[in-house]
Every structure is written in C-alpha cells, then in structure tokens.
C-alpha cells in the first residue's frame, strides 16, 4: 500500500532554511516550496498510513517548526489494483 500526504509546515521566522534542511533529511519527505512568510509545502510518502502520522509527529519535534498540518491524503492499495482513496482534509 502506498500513502501520500500533503503537509503544510509553518516555521519560525529566521529558521526557515534550517527547518527546510532538516525536513529534507527525513526519509519519504520532500519539500516542494517555501513561502516568504515561512510556510513550507511538503509531501510525505510512506507504505503505511500510520507511518504518515508518525512522520508528521516527527515534524513537530524539529526545532523551529511552529505547526505541521496534513491538508491532503491519498492511499492506493497496489495489491487490489484499485484507483485509490483520496481525501482533502480542509
């Protein structure tokens, strides 16, 4: 099973670059964009949904992160060949 989540991470002013670098070190995490006001657009890709949640909790532990919120989640069960399940969470 493949799970992908879109996450909005908000970093403290002056620590955005540090947060971005730490995010890039986490397995399955990709930074797609950074705004001028310290928000980072991130995806997390893992094989199990609970690993997505564990990773989001890990993001909260990064020094300089004010918040991390899942805004989109997609699951696809490769074994069943289904089209997948997609949920917008806002």
Please render the helix and strand layout as text.
Layout: E1 2-11, H1 16-24, E2 29-34, E3 39-46, H2 49-60, E4 65-76, E5 85-88
Antiparallel strand pairs: 1-3, 1-4, 2-3, 4-5
Polypeptide structure, described:
The protein is α+β, with helices and mostly antiparallel strands and 90 residues long. The protein has a single domain, classed as Alpha-Beta Plaits (2-Layer Sandwich). Helix content is 23%, strand content 44%. It contains two helices and five strands; from the N terminus they run E-H-E-E-H-E-E. A five-stranded antiparallel β-sheet has the order 2-3-1-4-5, covered by helices on one side. Strand 2 and strand 3 form a beta hairpin. The chain starts with a strand and ends with a strand.
Give the overall form.
elongated
CATH topology description: Alpha-Beta Plaits
What is the beta-strand fraction?
A: 35-45%
The SSE order reads: EHEEHEE
- Give the total of domains: 1
The radius of gyration is 13 Å
Provide a short characterization of the protein structure:
The protein is of the alpha+beta class and 90 residues long. The protein has helices spanning 16-24, 49-60; strands at residues 2-11, 29-34, 39-46, 65-76, 85-88. The protein is elongated and about 40 Å long.
């Amino acid at each position: 099973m493949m799970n992908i989540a879109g996450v909005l991470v908000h970093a403290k002013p002056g620590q955005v670059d540090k947060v971005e670098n730490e995010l890039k070190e986490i397995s399955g995490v990709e930074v797609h964009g950074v705004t001028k006001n310290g928000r980072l657009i991130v995806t997390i890709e893992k094989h199990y949904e609970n690993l997505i949640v564990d990773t989001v909790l890990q993001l909260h532990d990064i020094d300089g992160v004010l918040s991390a919120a899942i805004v989109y989640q997609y699951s696809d069960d490769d074994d069943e060949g289904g089209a997948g399940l997609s949920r917008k969470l806002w």
